[in-house]
Design a protein that fits this description.
With 350 residues, this protein is of the alpha/beta class. The chain contains 12 helices and 10 strands. It has helices spanning 33-36, 44-66, 85-102, 111-123, 162-172, 179-187, 213-224, 239-268, 283-296, 305-308, 318-324, 346-349; strands spanning 2-7, 12-19, 24-31, 75-81, 106-110, 130-135, 140-147, 150-156, 272-276, 299-301. The strands form 2 sheets. A 5-stranded mixed beta sheet has the order 3-2-1-4-5, with helices on both faces. A 5-stranded mixed beta sheet has the order 8-7-6-9-10, sandwiched between helices. Helix 3 links the parallel strand 4 (75-81) and strand 5. Residues 339-350 have low confidence and may be disordered. The structure holds adenosine-5'-triphosphate, magnesium ion (MG) and fe (iii) ion. Adenosine-5'-triphosphate binds at residues 9-11, 83, 136-139, 163-164, 166-167, 178-181, 184, 277-279, 281-282, 309-310. Its EC number is 2.3.1.234. One of its GO terms (molecular function) is iron ion binding. It is an enzyme of class 2 (transferase). Belongs to the KAE1 / TsaD family.
């Protein structure tokens, strides 16, 4: 069984060919981040236009790399939920068109389930049931994952997503976009204890939610002083102060994520944690998770970096749908969902 998988939920245009043993026959990811970086976040209109330009070349490249033709495909799968509406539409229309024109079965992919499924693809083992933690630019969610296709939400962020906080704090520190890798790098030279930042909700054993907005504000007050920001204000951004703030902020985010992952494992009594999304690429977070898994005694699954950020390989979750006969017809629509994204604000970026 061979599937073409298509991913266009946010700002990566991606396609892959995978088989039912989870072999990756090809994988192509066209990033758009250079189109968005000057705005400090993803601009939805720019994203959808860029998807339109890239989608067919990316699909063709994935097919060529795999060395097969459309006639060899058993299904075409596309992520239709959640994401930016205009971005999702481009992938969906490409998938539906190819499915109709070549008479190939169509399958829907839940992008969040796919992020967790990356752990299954990478490890080659059955990772379910598990607690799923998705931390990306648009999400900070905890799930009870009974099977690959059966997720129950346990908690999520009540304001900003973790990646969004990384991006905004990086912008305050003058580190550019995307902020996650920039903060990680700056933090290497910094003291994580230098600034006392809050760990919102961590002390509340009743809640499996996150809150990163207050943490972001705490960084802002530390840098600019409390109150309204005067755009002309001089801020001390010497490299050591930036490094210390990056390290202190990163430590606080990681503390929050790990505390709630531990609580979710305790409440579900599961002993496996699967982590996905762009923030899972953070090297400090990965180290802390490994130490936590050893301390608490659970099994940790965390994919390599290229399977943490958006990609089409994780769309191999569609194999699970193929095997249960979960096919779609041409009425399949997008379901953007309540996705919060680091959408650029022109006034902040100058
Ligand atoms: P979605 O939320 O819909 O999955 P997305 O495109 O926002 O979509 P990803 O591509 O998975 O999500 O992740 C991007 C986010 O991950 C950005 O906010 C980025 O700053 C963050 N990120 C990437 N690398 C790192 C890192 N090393 N450390 C911390 N954050 C990182
Ligand atoms: Mg992305
Ligand atoms: Fe994603």
């Amino acid at each position: 069984i061979r599937l073409l998988t298509i991913e266009s939920t946010c700002d990566e245009t991606a396609a892959a060919v995978v088989d039912d043993e989870l072999n990756v026959l090809s994988s192509v990811v066209a990033s758009q981040s250079h189109l968005h970086d000057r705005y400090g976040g993803v601009v939805p209109e720019i994203a959808s236009r860029a998807h339109v330009e890239r989608i067919m070349p990316v699909i063709e490249q994935a097919m060529t790399q795999a060395g097969i033709s459309l006639a060899d495909l058993d299904a075409i799968a596309v992520a239709n939920h959640p994401g930016l509406a205009g971005s999702l539409l481009v992938g969906l229309i490409a998938a539906k068109t190819l499915s109709f024109a070549h008479n190939i079965p169509l399958i829907a992919i839940d992008h969040l389930q796919a992020h967790i499924y990356a752990c299954q693809i990478d490890s080659g083992r059955n990772v379910f049931p598990c607690v799923g933690l998705i931390v990306s630019g648009g999400h900070s969610n905890l799930y009870r994952c009974e099977t690959a296709l059966d997720f129950t939400p346990l908690g999520s962020t009540i304001d900003d997503a973790a990646g969004e906080a990384f991006d905004k704090v990086a912008s305050m520190l003058g580190l550019g976009y995307p902020g996650g890798p920039a903060i990680q790098k700056a933090a290497e030279q910094g003291d994580p204890q230098k600034f006392k930042l809050p760990r919102p909700l961590v002390d509340n054993p009743e809640r499996l939610d996150f809150s990163f907005s207050g943490l972001k504000t705490a960084v802002r007050y530390e840098l600019y002083g409390p109150g309204k920001i005067n755009p002309g204000a001089r801020v001390d951004l010497n490299p050591q102060r930036v490094a210390d703030m990056a390290a202190s902020f990163q430590e606080a985010v990681v503390d929050c994520l790990i505390a709630k992952a531990d609580l979710a494992l305790e409440k579900t009594r599961y002993n496996r944690l699967c982590v996905g999304g762009g923030v899972a690429a953070n090297s400090h977070f990965r180290k802390r998770l490994e130490a936590d898994a050893a301390r608490v005694g659970y099994e940790l699954f965390i994919p390599p970096l290229k399977l943490c950020t958006d990609n089409a390989v994780m769309g191999a979750i569609a194999i699970e749908r193929y095997q249960t006969g979960l096919f779609e017809d041409l009425s399949l629509d997008i379901s953007p969902g309540l996705v919060r994204h680091t959408v650029a604000r022109l006034s902040e970026s100058g």
